């Protein structure tokens, strides 16, 4: 699988993109004498809806300067997700000494519901040669990806597909919401491949609702988003008697489903020469025209480009 690399500033764990000898262990002993894996890379989002292709960002730290990524590969096993990528130093970039944050994106095929141990593999270039070098390298533990059954989600969203680069309204429902729920303090923001929506939920149990099964929930304004597949996380804050959000509430966001942004097709493009120039994500909002897919690029972007990942209504092609 191919992906694009981006800068990132929130990477609590560290990892070197250099070759790691087999003698190094990827675990440490806890205070209870149990072996616990040390997480050295991260993925985001860490939850996804089952049965739909999606995208994740792999991030960590590296001693390489402005690393260039290529040869993205994804392998889904029984309870495992392996992400492999080649990272090479940018020979023309200038960086200060010390480890640097890095991030690169992967397109993930639709997965069954379950928990998956994530491991990243960052082999040397010789591993991708026609005759790969016989060098063993340790996996970098990236935590757990939880894929949730769509039918078991408490929250749901409508619509599930919207146009790119246009603001829209998102209807967020919950299995327990009725006509007696009042919603306020609506907000939304995008982080990577995730869309977060938040609101205050004030129940009115005295309300008399008709005996008709109808979805209830807030309709939230969402700013324009670029093409891609986003996991939507909803947080229903309790009502505390104050006008704004409850200042004492600590509520974990819950997965509400996957949202496809784009007119039927989205894509990630990279320079045809695997070049290092910035702005490698140039095309979104694809349209099918007489058996071809047409993508509009940003103004000022020129050159030959190749498609690195194409998604048609949420399915990686």
Care to describe what's here?
This protein has no helices and 24 strands. The protein is mostly beta strands and 317 residues long. It has three domains: 5-149, no CATH class; 153-261, Sandwich (Immunoglobulin-like), CATH 2.60.40; 265-316, no CATH class. Residues 1-31, 270-285, 296-304 and 313-317 have low confidence and may be disordered.
Keywords:
0% helix, 317 residues, mainly beta, Immunoglobulin-like, five-stranded mixed sheet
**How many beta-strand elements?**
24
Question: Portion of residues in helices?
Answer: under 10%
Whole-number average pLDDT? 78
Please state the CA-atom Rg, rounded to the nearest Å: 22 Å
What's a quick, concise take on this entry?
0% of the residues lie in helices and 49% in strands. With 317 residues, the protein is an all-beta fold. It has three domains: 5-149, no CATH class; 153-261, Sandwich (Immunoglobulin-like); 265-316, no CATH class.
